[in-house]
What does this fold into?
Amino acid sequence: MTSKDTDPKFPTSRTKLLDSYSYDLLFNESVSAILRNQSANGAIVASPDFAQYQFCWLRDGSFSAYALDCAGKHKASARYHAWVNDAIGGISGIIDDVITKMERRDDVDPAIMPPARFALDGTSVVDDWPNFQIDGYGTWLWSLGQHLVESNQATLPKEWRSSVARAARYLATFALSPCYDVWEENGSAVHTSTLACVYGGLTSAASLLDDPGLLETAAVVKDRLRATIINGVYAKSSENSDVDASELWLLTPFHAVEVNDLAFVETVTTIEERLTLKGGLRRYSTDTYFGSGAWPVLTASLGWHHLNTGNGVEARRCLDWLAERFDDNGNLGEQFGGEHRDLRHYTEWVDRWGPPASDLTWSHAMYVILADAITRSGLPATGSRAGDSATEAAT
It folds into this structure.
């Protein structure tokens, strides 16, 4: 799976070494971590050290696959997409059944919806996890489109076409339906960041399949997004007028809003004002999960947004924040600071599940994505598009 260079040794004090060389090392370490966390069949485990995350989520995995493409690891990314293709093929009957029920206006039980996460062998997991999360399917279609661009493929492989069409039809059918959000909560609401993921997936699928009808549905989703504006900002959901840091994805990467959208500009400002914790971003204001620390995933998303709107200084600051949170073994956790912000809820979750994930594949992916985006922008001393020490053959 990985080469001899996938576990570089790091000095113990990273915060004193945030220079070009150090960024290269961290970039390499994160690429290597994603590769280590990818099974031979292409599945990417959410976390190797947290029992509740020993699965492959379409959401996490698809961002991770995009990070692999950013690092030039196109074969590894292709293995992931082939794995998703097979996993969707394995639940084709479930997808077709719920679409038919929806079209007939039958009641659709959320418990029978296609899964948001799979076992690493690609099979569905039968448990009480809130599976009805359509954002992952949108994120996969977006990531697949990016994979073809990054790997210079002009057309969708024909053996993937059926699964892409099925996932797109599923999204188009349930685009405006209440479901669980990207944090797997609040299943009775329509969530703004989920709409963004759906929009990104539908526009990507329209290009992959040359299907203008999907663009028409994407336009409906975009119109629905406008209805989420409350008091000048995009609300978290149809049931919550606050903001959520995942709403950063409305512009980057899913382009569901325009860069000069005044409500979105105000949303970003509000996110930073309400959700910043020691330089990083929390998920939302009433979050209690492990005390609601700051997430590398979201802080990188903020940096990515700032870079794409012309603020390279803030993008670099966000990258610095992530770089300083790698531990001495090259791990990058799910969140930081919750035990200091809200010890009671932090302790409740530790008692239930143990300490939070100390190494999250998605965190590594977002570090790679942000570092690569900064490098492509031409900003100095941010690290190169590294990862070349682990050869393509080894991936």
In short: The chain has a mean pLDDT of 91.
